[in-house]
């Protein structure tokens, strides 16, 4: 505000200048082009200097970060031989844009559209129809798609769809879920649901997952917690546990020790491929069950593990994790808000590959812990210590390690 | 690019081994370069290799860093701030470089 009063206007960043240039050129080109002009997409890229296919997804990232992906800039991605496209922010892409994408990127096999609020029924069906090789669809926020369209979409994707992730829409209902499972269930290898407010029948899922290669399962933040019960998870893991590489049950707060002892421990036994395990906010889980799990099941490939806000956990569980064979591979560990932890956990933390540790709101973390963790974990680059008020400006921080969230660092 | 300052200079090296020398102050406009120059890295010596950026693109980047440094605190009413020109044919590559350098 002070700057506004001084009438000092911020200089535009180089990124903004470039995007402006790109945008104005595209619209100029569009104005000049006649009806035949649809062939010009490849030329646009040449005029703007050309870019390799490898870099296109980087370009997408840069545009999304600047909230500059719209129907205009989207044209940069048309007429390419891209097979995978990831857009982190599609909020400004209209349904016309998605249709253009479907027509001019016929080779797409994987598509990830986050914040795709403007994606409508017509555009989704259009993509299913025009992209013959499409097999992986990840959508965040497709709230215009209604029940009938989901049904039609899954029908037309039957036999093709192997990965389906959807989050943040209230129009994906039990009927949509059932349609997905009936038409595509036996091919799926990756399934991820997050914050679907109209889905309650999660119990339906296990019987349809037939693919022995199934490797990614995420069920997060169900609208009614009791819909994702221990029983549902037991049945799911019985079906797909042996080959899982990724498991996330964040926010399924109804789960109890039963799911860990009789589910994870039993059905992940012999699974040595698990790379990512996320059990955030499972407030009913106690240390006893996790201790048993980490003691019984070796997890030699685990590189990401989050136990964030499982507030009942004590040292027993975390110490056992750090003694598990997982410790050699572990790169990312989240212990945020585990208020009962003591320094004991951190003293035995000895992970050669650990890069990121979130120890925020763990009250026992002090200067001594910061020093110990730094020296025992040579690869550690980032440690978060928000809300750890015993970490002072006197803490000795190893070279190459960045500490964030320290109270004394504020402003 | 000659500057009559006494401040330490930084050399930026492009993928095709073109070298550009700018004042450290200008280089610090880029958060990416600042971390490189201040951190415990070999770039501390003042020589930064940027294998992802071509020479002609880097030349524009260097121009922008100096442009930004010069006009950052200028008062719009009293001074005329010239527009920074982006060559059309370089826009895409320049965007990628700008994204990397966070400017």
UniProtKB/TrEMBL annotation, chain B:
<keyword id="KW-0539">Nucleus</keyword>
<dbReference type="InterPro" id="IPR001232">
    <property type="entry name" value="SKP1-like"/>
</dbReference>
<dbReference type="Pfam" id="PF03931">
    <property type="entry name" value="Skp1_POZ"/>
</dbReference>
<dbReference type="GO" id="GO:0070449">
    <property type="term" value="C:elongin complex"/>
</dbReference>
<dbReference type="GO" id="GO:0070911">
    <property type="term" value="P:global genome nucleotide-excision repair"/>
</dbReference>
<dbReference type="GO" id="GO:0006511">
    <property type="term" value="P:ubiquitin-dependent protein catabolic process"/>
</dbReference>
<dbReference type="GO" id="GO:0000113">
    <property type="term" value="C:nucleotide-excision repair factor 4 complex"/>
</dbReference>
<dbReference type="InterPro" id="IPR011333">
    <property type="entry name" value="SKP1/BTB/POZ_sf"/>
</dbReference>
<dbReference type="GO" id="GO:0009411">
    <property type="term" value="P:response to UV"/>
</dbReference>
<comment type="similarity">
    <text>Belongs to the SKP1 family.</text>
</comment>
<dbReference type="InterPro" id="IPR039948">
    <property type="entry name" value="ELC1"/>
</dbReference>
<dbReference type="GO" id="GO:0004842">
    <property type="term" value="F:ubiquitin-protein transferase activity"/>
</dbReference>
<feature type="domain" description="SKP1 component POZ">
    <location>
        <begin position="9"/>
        <end position="69"/>
    </location>
</feature>
<dbReference type="GO" id="GO:0031463">
    <property type="term" value="C:Cul3-RING ubiquitin ligase complex"/>
</dbReference>
<protein>
    <recommendedName>
        <fullName>Elongin-C</fullName>
    </recommendedName>
</protein>
<dbReference type="InterPro" id="IPR016073">
    <property type="entry name" value="Skp1_comp_POZ"/>
</dbReference>
